[in-house]
Amino acid sequence: MHNASFGFSLCLCVSVVSGFLAGNAFAEVSVRDDVGNTVRLAQPAKRIISLAPHMTETLFAAGAGAQIVGTVEYSDYPEAAKKIQRVGGYSRFDLETIAALKPDLIVAWQSGNAAAHIDKLEGMGFPIYISQPNRIEDVASEIERLGQLAGTTATAQGAATAFRERLATLTGRYSKRPSVRTFYQIWKQPLMTIGKNQIISDAIRLCGGENVFEKLEQLAPTVTVEAVIAANPEAIVASGMDESRPEWLDDWKKWTSIEAVKRDNLFFVPPELIQRHTPRLLEGTEILCKHLETVRGRRGK
């Protein structure tokens, strides 16, 4: 009887240990971020800090909104994001506040966060996922990877699938339409546009357009009015900083030699729908595509 009892206890112990080890192995997470670094977590993240508004929004899309314990200014979508504790702005954040929140994952933005700040956080031992999606399809992959890191894979995969389906629909509808030479203006002073590796250039291509400054390598290069006049775009599209059409978009009306001005092809797309690398990017892209369709409809009139 004693031996039987001992054998049962031993089997039970082995089963518990085996189950524990299997559970830990299952919980371990490993993904590659946008700059090629492998991010490894012993288990899905429970306390996440987002260092960019677009990352906050994408985490919510991936089903991980409840795990975000800190984020930066302008993280305003969805509504629940407004209630999350702030750790500063995306270009300057408070390291002490971040440390006090004890994150088990930090998601950063390569072109928005200072490299020195990210290096400091890495030096403090925090796992860091770095985001830099430069193509629209990268957004779907990012949703999936963040879902893996947060343990919300089912929600993330559903959101990624819906994104890819809508992207395929827009691509099929607009990508083969007649080309429209397009100047996209981010800001007036300095006069800023987008280079070939900026995700908005990808949106213009999807719409059958051509970014007149696509040969520039920088993500957000500064150009001159003279360069825009020389490029002679058929459409000028601006975003600005808020939901309203920027007043400076109409400043182009004085340059009557530009084809876009002659045909009144001056358009606005809300910045939160086109300048954030999130699922809502497809809403902004569809608006952009409709603007370029308007341009095509005005040809020859």
UniProtKB/TrEMBL annotation:
Keywords from the named record: Signal
Coiled coil: none
CDD domains: BtuF (cd01144)
Location of the Fe/B12 periplasmic-binding domain: 47-296
Top-rank taxon: Bacteria
A Pfam family matched in the record: Peripla_BP_2
Signal peptide residues on this chain, from the entry's feature table: 1-27
Any GO BP annotation: cellular response to iron ion
InterPro entries membership: ABC_Transporter_SBP, ABC_transptr_periplasmic_BD, Vit_B12_bind_prot
Keyword Nucleotide-binding in annotation: no
Record's protein name: Cobalamin-binding protein
Species in which this protein is naturally found: Candidatus Proximibacter danicus
